[in-house]
Amino acid sequence: MAAPVCKSADYKLTSLDDIESNTAYLGDASEKNWVSSGVPVAYNDEAVLLTMAPDTVGTLLMSTHYVWYGKMSATMTTSQGQGVVTAFIMMSDVKDEIDFEFVGVDLESAQSNYYWQGVTDYDNGKALTTSNTVSEAHTYTIDWQPDYISWAIDGKVGRTVQKKDTYNSTDNKYHFPQTPSRVQLSLWPAGLPSNGNGTITWAGGLIDWDSQYMQNGYYYAQVKEVSVECYDPPSDTTKTGDEAYYYLNSEGLEQSVAIGNNNTILGSMLADGENPDFKPKSKTSGGSKPTSTPETVPGISGGGSQQIGGQQAGNGGSGSGNSPSGSAPADSSPTQVGGTTSFEQGNGSMSEASTVYAGSAVALLGFFVAALML
Questions:
Q1: How far apart are CA 319 and CA 88, in angstroms?
Q2: 17 band by pLDDT with thresholds 50, 70 and 90
Q3: Least confident span in 61-70, 76-85, 308-317
Q4: Which of 162, 225, 240, 342 has its CA 20 to 30 A from that of 187?
Q5: 88: closest CA among 226, 207, 229, 231?
Q6: Considering only CA atoms, which of 99, 54, 7, 14 is closest in space to residue 336?
Q7: Which among 78, 104, 84 has a CA at the least distance from the CA of 224?
Q8: Which intervals carry biased composition (Polar residues) (predicted)?
Q9: Which domains does the chain carry?
Q10: For residue 122, what pLDDT is reported?
Q11: In the prediction, which pLDDT does 353 show?
């Protein structure tokens, strides 16, 4: 599906007014600037909390507008505890990724990382030193240029990666993030027993759902402000309009991206880029709802195979990438964040065609078994 073009703005995240649930958002970026899964909570008119209660995989906040090169900053505090990871990243629909990640047992480190098309090259990460990420709000900045990426904390650049240094001689391509991406902020449980041992070790151990660092029944991180400064697209970009990014081919490279006036809005939660106007016919037999919903929000999954939304933690949710002490809000109003709206990623249920095909196969197999027994 085509994606809404970049929008330079300074977003003060003081309420939920500009946030829409991913169970309702269909791609109209003119209505809301952020999409959420899980349970974001407004806190004291000064921040939005990313919450993570037991048996959930946390909360994700995603920009509705994409960025194709730009400077993105997030002023925030992180969560704390073993197995708990806070993240501020850029994620494209072809799994290009630029990360700031914060492991809950390391309060004075911000991990920088990047991926190209979801290739898990673990040599791309580097830790940047800072002061306490839980008790102190810092501004983390990703400056993404066509020829380099830099990571800065409170205005001080801690790392720069040049595109020229990412050339891969095996496939003759630059393994450098280069496709339109969404700003994503998340809190997720890397320390689930169902995750890989490497991820659990990286996250500091198994998550403790009875931790002293939980408040009102959940872990939390605070996001106060996000700013986006859009850069001009590459000079050789194919342009037939100015409203949406779309792909000319399946290579997923910078030269694959064009800008036009393509539709970005889906007709329903069951529509997709190949059939964007699809609207299922209403059923008259009791009005039962489907037990699972396919993923329909572009860019919701990334190189780190994030599983997000109100799914149960036992489903093995994980965050992006290789894959902290502070006082909790004293007067945060919510007392419970359980019972979130379920949103399962992937095609959780077969289509009618698949069901008929599977049924036919079973019937055919039964026929051959019966024939052999005669």
A1: 11
A2: very high
A3: 308-317
A4: 162
A5: 226
A6: 54
A7: 78
A8: 335-350
A9: 1-271+283-374 (2.60.120.200)
A10: 84
A11: 30
DSSP, collapsed to helix, strand or coil, labels residue 286 as coil
For residue 268, the tally of other CB atoms under 10 A from its CB is 14
Beta-carbon contacts of residue 235 (< 8 Å; ≥ 6 apart): none
Catalytic residues: 97, 101
Residue with tokens 């041992």: 197
Q: For residue 282, what pLDDT band results from cuts at 50, 70 and 90?
A: low
Q: Which two tokens stand for residue 33?
A: 């600037």
Q: What is the pLDDT of residues 68-112, one digit of tens each?
A: 999 999 999 999 999 999 999 999 999 999 999 999 999 999 999
d(CA 362, CA 308): 34
Q: 152: phi > 0 → left, psi -120 to 50 → alpha, else beta; which? A: beta
Q: Which two tokens stand for residue 161?
A: 């990666």
Q: Which amino acid would we find at residue 285?
A: S
Structure-block tokens of residue 321: 């990438």
Q: What is the rounded CA–CA span in Å between residue 217 and residue 209? A: 9
d(CA 276, CA 26): 10
Q: Who contacts 177 (Cβ-Cβ below 8 Å, separation ≥6)?
A: 90, 92, 96, 97, 98, 114, 115, 116, 144, 149
The torsion angles phi and psi of 59, rounded to 5 degrees, stand at: -130, 140
In the chain, alpha helices (H) = 197-202, 352-373
Tokens of 235: 């000079």
Contact call for residues 96 and 177 (beta carbons, < 8 A): yes
pTM over the 0.85 mark: no
d(CA 336, CA 338): 6
Task: With cut-offs at 50, 70 and 90, classify the pLDDT of residue 281.
Answer: confident
Strand duo 238-239 + 257-260: pairing: parallel
